[in-house]
Amino acid sequence: MGRLHYLLGLLLLFICSFFWIASNLGKQPLSIALTHTPRESCVCSEDNVTVASDVGIIPSNPPEPPINKDMRPISEPQIPSYLPIANPHGHYAQSSIPLKLWQKAGSTKIHDDRQRDINSWLDVNPRLRHEILTDDSADEYVREHFANYPEVLDLYLSLPVPILKADLLRQLILYADGGIWSDLDVTCHIPIYTWIPEQFQNKTNVVVGLEFDGFQFASWTIMTKPKTSHIVAVMKYIIDRLKASAAQYNVTTAQLNMTMISDVVEVTGPQAMTIALLQNLEKEMGVPFGRANITNIKEPTLFQDVLVLPNAAFSSRQAGFPADRGPYLVEHHYAGSWKNVNGGEAKS
């Protein structure tokens, strides 16, 4: 009996110990640590599992990531704006003036003398791109580049006098594309790349030369970067003068004729260009500026971003081939085919 009671006591002690251990285990959370890997670890429990990464904790419901402005969808490009130009004389997309010559033929074919003048440009400048516009192709050019500016487009297309259109056309081309405009009756003697002195190479947006009188810019040859405020000023000045001429006779610009134009040189030609450029330079420089600043200069002079060449450069013949005003760059032959009652060549 004593042995039996002893065994029953051990059994009861075992049972009590088992229930005591089980009860304590129920009160402690079960924790399991997984082996750490180079990139992530996992800590698990009965109630949740959390994954931790070296780069931070990843929440169960992550918020939307902020949109980087550089990653936003690219909007459709806007129609290019030509007028007015906001940046007057600063940093243009092109670092140099385009090496392209623009010219326009009259209604008759190009004569042999004019063809020799054209060839001189190509002979002296082998890399020069060249385009000669006709009446029809010039109209098409303006339609393409100024379609969003009907005031400019309609006025240009409506002008009935060839020289008025030609004077305005050169400004429209120089604004839209830049490069070199030259009338057909001009011979080139010196390569274009030498026209701008080295110290002004990266500062020049417009190149003009003085006429033989020494105080007016020649319009038969002019060189510019595209989209400069200076050419915008010339365009606006010419358009205003044409409208004023029409208003004086109570007609539209489409009804203008040569008898209504007081002076082509003053309305659309070199005098108009000179006044507009000087006025725009004064406005942008913020100081008085006029003809006194450019009269009879003897070396290339940079005014802000407009390079003015002495009259030997573009007007050597008319100025008597001066020997103290730099090299002779081009020579103007004054064919003057527009100087008649029609303001242009008579159609054959």
List the helices and strands and how they pair.
Layout: H1 2-27, E1 31-33, E2 40-45, E3 49-53, E4 56-57, E5 100-104, H2 112-124, E6 129-133, H3 135-145, H4 150-158, H5 162-176, E7 179-182, E8 186-188, E9 206-209, E10 221-224, H6 229-248, H7 264-267, H8 270-285, H9 291-294, E11 301-303, E12 306-309, H10 311-315, E13 330-332
Parallel strand pairs: 5-6, 5-7, 9-12
Antiparallel strand pairs: 1-2, 2-3, 3-4, 7-10, 8-13, 9-10, 11-12
Helix pairs in contact: 3-5, 5-6, 6-8
Characterize this entry briefly:
With 348 residues, the protein is an alpha+beta fold. 35% of the residues lie in helices and 15% in strands.
Q: Given the helix and strand composition, which structural class is it? A: alpha+beta
Count of helical regions: 10
The spatial strand order of the largest sheet comes to 6-5-7-10-9-12-11
Low-confidence stretches: 25-82
Strand fraction equals 5-15%
CATH class of the domain at 100-332: Alpha Beta
- Per the CATH scheme, the topology name of the domain at 100-332 is Spore Coat Polysaccharide Biosynthesis Protein SpsA, Chain A
Gap between N and C termini, in Å?
Answer: 150 Å
**Number of strand segments:** 13
Largest sheet: number of strands, sense, barrel closure: 7 strands, mixed
The arrangement of helices and strands along the chain is HEEEEEHEHHHEEEEHHHHEEHE
Judging from the principal axes of the Cα atoms, what is the shape?
A: elongated
Secondary-structure arrangement, i.e. CATH architecture of the domain at 100-332: Alpha-Beta Complex
Helix content: 25-40%
Mean pLDDT over the full residue set: 79
CA gyration radius, whole angstroms? 40 Å
Signal peptide: 1-26
GO molecular function: alpha-1,6-mannosyltransferase activity
Keywords: Signal, Transferase
Family: Belongs to the glycosyltransferase 32 family.
